[in-house]
């Protein structure tokens, strides 16, 4: 690409500080192993604040006293009926030694692969990360592409990074523009860095910043912010 030199001072960076960084770094979806449904973190926060902290927001199952073993058994039952969400969560638990399970990466990959075949974008993304760590760029790219086409914006960002490492800057910028326009914080950062290097025009960066801020505004809510803050406090031990 041949573009005139650009400087970051010409970008309306004050718009970008309305960032989505906190939400971007926090998983917003929670899977209910009792009934196989997923809920946004903000909705979960609102449901609990209404006094229903001991029940599932969907099937009203009693969550009091439920152990890791109970959750694993529920997940396995959901896996038996081809629930892609349960396959992803159980695979994640095997891979990262959650819910009291011993690490079993082979089992995790098996479960993620089955979930991906059923159309799970998160399973495709997890496989993309796995093959990135293993150095298999062909499989890494395949799974990130599948996840991105299903709307997974982190996978879309990763595709941009893959293209950038391969020297395909124009394709990288296209991927980052799509992800940033959907509100992905790191993609927007990468575009601004590309703008500094003269790879993105001023008009393009302004248009993407506008789309980014609109997407961030749509995603933000008081309940989501409270959920994020509550999660951060738990991590910090507060």
Describe the structure.
- The protein is mainly alpha-helical and 238 residues long.
- It has 13 helices and 2 strands.
- It has helices at 13-16, 21-24, 41-52, 68-80, 84-96, 105-117, 121-133, 137-149, 153-165, 169-181, 185-196, 202-219, 222-236, and strands at 29-32, 37-40.
- Strands 1-2 form a two-stranded antiparallel sheet.
- Helix 3 packs across helix 13 (222-236), helix 4 (68-80) crosses helix 5 (84-96) and helix 6 (105-117) crosses helix 7 (121-133).
- It is flat and about 55 Å long.
- The N and C termini lie far apart (49 Å).
Annotation keywords:
single chain; 238 residues; mainly alpha; two-stranded antiparallel sheet; 13 helices; 66% helix; flat; disordered N terminus
What is this entry, summarized?
With 238 residues, the protein is mainly alpha-helical. Helices cover 66% and strands 3% of the residues.
How far apart the termini lie comes to 49 Å
Tell me the major beta sheet: 2 strands, antiparallel
What is the typical, i.e. mean, pLDDT?
A: 85
Determine the strand fraction and express it as a percent band: under 5%
Number of helices, counting only DSSP H or I runs of 4 residues or more: 13
Radius of gyration (Å): 20 Å
What's the arrangement of strands in the largest beta sheet?
1-2
- Give the helix level as a range of percent: 55-70%
Low-pLDDT runs: 1-9
- Secondary-structure element string: HHEEHHHHHHHHHHH
Number of strands: 2
The outline comes out as flat
């Amino acid at each position: 690409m041949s573009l005139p030199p650009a400087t970051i001072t010409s970008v309306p960076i004050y718009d970008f500080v309305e960032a989505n960084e906190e939400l971007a770094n926090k998983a917003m979806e929670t899977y209910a192993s009792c009934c196989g449904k997923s809920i946004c973190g903000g909705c979960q926060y609102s449901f609990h604040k209404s006094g229903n902290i001991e029940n599932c927001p969907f099937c009203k199952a009693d969550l009091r006293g439920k152990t890791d073993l109970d959750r694993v058994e529920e997940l396995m039952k959901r896996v038996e009926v081809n629930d892609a969400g349960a396959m992803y969560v159980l695979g994640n638990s095997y891979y990262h030694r959650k819910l009291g399970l011993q690490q079993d990466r082979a089992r995790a990959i098996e479960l993620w692969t089955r979930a991906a075949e059923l159309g799970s974008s998160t399973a495709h993304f997890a496989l993309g990360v796995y093959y990135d760590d293993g150095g298999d760029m062909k499989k890494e790219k395949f799974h990130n592409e599948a996840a991105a086409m299903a709307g997974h914006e982190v996978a879309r960002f990763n595709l941009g990074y893959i293209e950038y490492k391969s020297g395909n800057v124009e394709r990288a910028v296209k991927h980052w523009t799509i992800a940033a326009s959907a509100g992905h914080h790191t993609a927007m950062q990468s575009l601004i860095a590309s703008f500094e290097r003269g790879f993105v025009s001023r008009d393009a960066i302004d248009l993407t910043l506008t789309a980014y801020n609109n997407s961030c505004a749509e995603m933000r809510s008081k309940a989501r912010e409270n959920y994020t803050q509550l999660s951060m406090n738990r991590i910090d031990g507060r």
